[in-house]
Amino acid sequence: MKYRDLGRTGWKVSEVSFGAWAIGGAWGDVDDKESLAALHKAIDSGVNFIDTADVYGMGRSERLISQLRHERSEQIVVATKAGRRLPAQTVEGYSRENLTGWIEDSLRNLATDCLDLVQLHCPPTALYYRPEVFGYLDDLVSAGKIRHYGVSVERVEEALKAIEFPNVKTVQIIFNCFRLRPAGLLFAETIKKKVGILARVPLASGLLTGKFNKASRFEKTGSSQLQSPWRSVRRG
Fold first, then answer.
1. Can you tell me whether residue 149 is helix, strand or coil?
2. Active-site residue, selected from the candidate residues 3, 56, 129, 149
3. Would you call 93 exposed, middle or buried from its count of C-beta atoms within 10 A (0-12, 13-18, 19+)?
4. Distance separating alpha carbons of residues 82 and 232, to the nearest angstrom
5. pLDDT for 107-146, tens place per residue?
6. C-alpha–C-alpha distance, residues 23 and 37, integer Å
7. 56 tagged catalytic
8. Which terminus of the chain has fewer CB atoms gathered within 10 Å of its CB, N or C?
9. What is the CATH number of domain 3-206+220-235?
């Protein structure tokens, strides 16, 4: 396994990380024993960075990661996310009260006193023009609730605006052979500002795994099997 500096966090993280969305159960039935076995295999293989969110199984993914940490002696950096529990995505929903509540819930799920990394979970574009929200996160850092924070974004423009805030340490963005735009201006700016990049959906939701061919068939359904419940709400 190779490791890289994650921006200015001070962490060296594995180039390959563990995405913990599926073990939350949002993609279908999962067995917790199999999920834990997969997590242990990842750590055995040198992975030391796990990405999750409070909405992945409404805490189920976070709780499994907590169990993993209890069973391992290695340092494991966990990034979680906050914001998708809102019934509707509005800037006003990212209030001090809501952010504090989400963080407290993740602290309980992960059985820790301080979260390693918290990312705003694809909030509305207008949020990046509301500096008070990043001030709330700064206060949570000062209170010892989170060590670092960043953003998970949909668009390059959102990422470029987010990294204008000096304490944004990471940007998570879709990056794969179909979505190469971040490799331009965004990567150049993040290198300049020493902001860590977390590439999400690197295998294009499974399309790049090599498991699909011309003979592949998919179950007929009224909505995409690759679409998450919160994404359906957000896009309406």
1. strand
2. 56
3. middle
4. 17
5. 999 999 999 999 999 999 999 999 999 999 999 999 999 9
6. 11
7. yes
8. C
9. 3.20.20.100
